[in-house]
Specification:
The chain contains no helices and 19 strands. With about 200 residues, the chain is an all-beta fold.
Length: about 200
């Protein structure tokens, strides 16, 4: 009678599982299947250090101890965006926060619900149309890892703000400082800065 050969996990994984471990008769075939729990994925796995490309393999148990090791990655479970406002004809860059922070893929894809109001590029730059003041557009960020986790925000398009420049000084110049009663005199006023 032969001593059974073992197919063992190198450790217990909370992120996933290995099926098919246990005792085998030397030379017997074992089917080993690996998988990940919710919100995780199998990045890589190996039997005795040899990387496997399929999630299920059948192997001949030919040595007394066969060790299965795994590495997992985390999927994004939440994406956060903040609502905001944007002047018509202007741009703003949105930032999507993906959680958990140690998820494997932190990138997102962007989509505008109505491109006649505002567009969004692959970097999250929202451009409001010049005639969109008073309208609201929904912008959506979707995590790239599974493509199933997304969040939307509302961007309210407002009238462009007019820039006012404060007057710093007014200089009045006149050729003669007096004027006869009932007569007029031209004076020149110079405002600083010139764009005020």
């Amino acid at each position: 009678e032969h001593t059974p050969y073992q197919v063992l996990q190198d450790k217990i994984y909370e992120e996933g599982y290995v099926m098919g471990t246990g005792s085998y008769v030397p030379g017997e075939f074992a089917t080993i299947k690996v998988g990940a729990n919710k919100d995780y994925f199998v990045k890589s796995w190996a039997i005795d250090g040899v990387q496997q490309s399929e999630m299920e393999v059948t192997m001949k148990v030919s040595k007394s101890q066969n060790i299965v090791s795994m590495e997992f990655g985390k999927y994004v479970t939440n994406v956060f965006l903040e609502d905001g406002e944007l002047e018509a004809g202007k741009k703003v860059t949105l930032e999507a926060c993906c959680y958990p922070e140690d998820s494997q893929e932190q990138r997102v894809t962007w989509k505008s619900e109505d491109e006649t109001i505002a567009t969004v590029d692959e970097n999250g730059v929202v451009t409001a149309k010049a005639d969109a003041a008073g309208k609201t557009v929904k912008i959506t960020a979707t995590a790239m890892d599974r493509g199933t986790v997304s969040e939307s925000c509302e961007i309210r398009i407002i009238e462009p703000r007019t820039t006012t420049v404060a007057v710093k000084s007014v200089k009045i110049s006149v050729a003669k400082k007096w004027v006869k009663a009932g007569k007029t005199r031209k004076i020149k006023a110079t405002v600083t800065p010139a764009k005020a």
